[in-house]
């Protein structure tokens, strides 16, 4: 089915006994969109991705993929979908190319179709020279790239990635994200990726923050950061040396968090003279106002009121 909407989630609910994992959640995604899904452990991110992939059935609501309702047309809905789970299983006693062949043939692809595509996608992810290597002899990062290649071999319109960079080194993580960005730009694939890393969600076109099974904050990284404009003050290089109780005597301060050796002070509203007040309390502090980070937004969002004050 030809449609301008890849994902259409309507009032999804999913519970496990007394625990509600997804609650009244609706979401749409178009071709070429890159959505970063983040939130604390237990927020419902993995359950949501599994519902979209058809690996779970919702208690209520609808999952519509590329125009096909998952509950009525699961085969057609999954046809244009690629899925890479947290614990993606590869066959370690098969070669790289044999693994690709297996996943291609499961999708019903003939050799005439899958072999050229396999070579193309292995070149794309940088594994073509390792096509005859046993998968068990690959590094963790190479296995992740092979998992991505397996999910892409049938040329899906939608790619679902559940924490795909877990357990790989920072350099490989950067390489993996460059591949995701190229997939979106060059093939027009829509991608939904869950990740706990704020530097990763910042690369996405849209960021959705989940809490208690719901998307409670959504927008571009810039839009989300703007919710705390003029409300973050940094005291660099102090670690735990600054007396926080003394800082909290200033009524403008809402919260204090450590970021490495720096402190970030979130204030209730813009206060031009607060920096000078802090410098009077701590003359050597070098306090200064900074642009908020997504980490600042996430921490504010995690508090009981649900999201930062605008």
Task: Explain what this protein looks like in three dimensions.
The protein has helices at 45-53, 74-79, 96-106, 111-125, 140-152, 170-187, 198-201, 221-226, 244-247, 274-281, 294-302; strands spanning 7-16, 19-29, 34-38, 60-65, 68-69, 81-84, 158-162, 190-194, 206-211, 214-219, 232-235, 253-259, 262-267, 288-289. It is of the alpha/beta class. The chain folds into 2 domains: 7-220, P-loop containing nucleotide triphosphate hydrolases (Rossmann fold); 230-290, Alpha-Beta Plaits (2-Layer Sandwich). The model is unreliable at 305-310 (pLDDT under 50).
Task: Summarize the SSE layout with pairings.
Layout: E1 7-16, E2 19-29, E3 34-38, H1 45-53, E4 60-65, E5 68-69, H2 74-79, E6 81-84, H3 96-106, H4 111-125, H5 140-152, E7 158-162, H6 170-187, E8 190-194, H7 198-201, E9 206-211, E10 214-219, H8 221-226, E11 232-235, H9 244-247, E12 253-259, E13 262-267, H10 274-281, E14 288-289, H11 294-302
Parallel strand pairs: 3-8, 3-9, 6-7, 7-8
Antiparallel strand pairs: 1-2, 1-4, 4-5, 9-10, 11-13, 11-14, 12-13
Helix pairs in contact: 3-4, 3-5, 4-5
Please outline what is shown here.
With 310 residues, this protein is α/β, with parallel strands linked by helices. It has eleven helices and 14 strands.
Features:
310 residues, alpha/beta, Rossmann fold, Alpha-Beta Plaits, 11 helices, 14 strands, elongated
